[in-house]
Amino acid sequence: MQTSFSFPSTRRPLDPRRVNLGVDANALDLDGSARDQLVGRFRDLVDGRKINVVVAGGVRDEIGHPRTPQNVKAAIMPRIFNLRPSLIPDQHAARQKVRAILQGNAKPGAHAADASHLSEAAETGCGYFITHDKRMLKKRTELHAVLPPSLNIVTLEELLEIFDAYEAGKAM
Hints:
Helices cover 44% and strands 9% of the residues. By secondary structure, it is α/β, with parallel strands linked by helices. The relative contact order is 0.23.
């Protein structure tokens, strides 16, 4: 199977029809480009129960903001979401590693919400985290070193490529 990016050697693409998907609210933004059709297709796949989305509690909080576009709210609000239970020490340590990678040279706390979203996807056993966050995508190789081997960070386009390969029977 060919995708527009390569998986680390220790990872192979999982069947997105069989694993939970974490999603960053920005992955479903409409911007007037051809990508809007992909967002619509993603929503159709979710509505048709071909894929399953688990929304991090922090993402759910973000989309509750009054300025969040209605189409993003409609896509995320009715989904299963993490109730954000108390964290155990191992989870705090794992989240700190993700936070440190995303922070880089930025001000402390600048990317804490993104780190929390990604960590929640890992903690809930998601196979993919869909985002269009440039920092997260740029650092995904570093992040893969501290995340569970089952979690892959992808764009919406990449996820749909993988989905289509599985649907066509051409997946690994």
